[in-house]
Amino acid sequence: xxxxxxxxxxxxxxxxxxxxxxxxxxxxxxxxxxxxxxxxxxxxxxxxxxxxxxxxxxxxxxxxxxxxxxxxxxxxxxxxxxxxxxxxxxxxxxxxxxxxxxxxxxxxxxxxxxxxxxxxxxxxxxxxxxxxxxxxxxxxxxxxxxxxxxxxxxxxxxxxxxxxxxxxxxxxxxxxxxxxxxxxxxxxxxxxxxxxxxxxxxxxxxxxxxxxxxxxxxxxxxxxxxxxxxxxxxxxxxxxxxxxxxxxxxxxxxxxxxxxxxxxxxxxxxxxxxxxxxxxxxxxxxxxxxxxxxxxxxxxxxx
Length: 303
Hints:
By secondary structure, the chain is an alpha/beta fold. The chain has helices spanning about 1-30, 35-40, 80-90, 110-120, 120-135, 155-165, 185, 205-220, 240, 245-265, 285-295, and strands spanning about 45, 55-60, 65-70, 95-100, 140-150, 170-175, 195-200, 225-230. α3 (about 80-90) links the parallel β3 (about 65-70) and β4. The termini are far apart. The model is unreliable at about 15-25 (pLDDT under 50).
């Protein structure tokens, strides 16, 4: 019995040490977030619902007015990959604003990223995006009726949910974000949807993507859903990787064609919709699968 007690005590101490180490690493990674934001953000956006929002803004040449895009970052927060894609999109003729939706925090450590998502209420995120939209629509070089939203990973799911709550958005592009499969909710989408997904994404099964497409069709929402066979989660990363060709370039070209059709063309008749925010609870299952993808799956080898 004494040996068993010693083993159990030893295991308990090991577990306690790991918990303390993990918690400490989350704190340390958080302390470094401000410095990372200093390198990625170039604008502060007024926010009636809270502190100013830090963002990166990219503008095309010429006075405009131009169509515009809200670009929502991935799992870790606003970073240089988001900045690179924002600049590339600005070269195509769009004013792009990429806000950090974790406010003053970013992550480079998966446990910290999970903490950021779990501790940031979706209602706060949607409210912050309202502030971003209002600021963007007020800019003299922006066409306020030609604003779309797009996002990657975490940002893909948020872009879809924000479109459910803002009837003024003209288009939505989702890069491997958690889908909504309730046709009744999707009826609130004000414009067309583009969905880009990886066939080998372990966090979003292909069956769920197919259910998303079916629900969009049932809701009468114009859409194009593309599944890239063999591609993992987060396969569209930096603009440098996109320019190397292959599936990342194909997916990027899809979004360029989609935005040209929906934001640069003359406005078509808009859908009459009633905003219906899909806040919901924290999706532990999805985010645990997402954490596995970034820590151990194919996406981990692309950091």
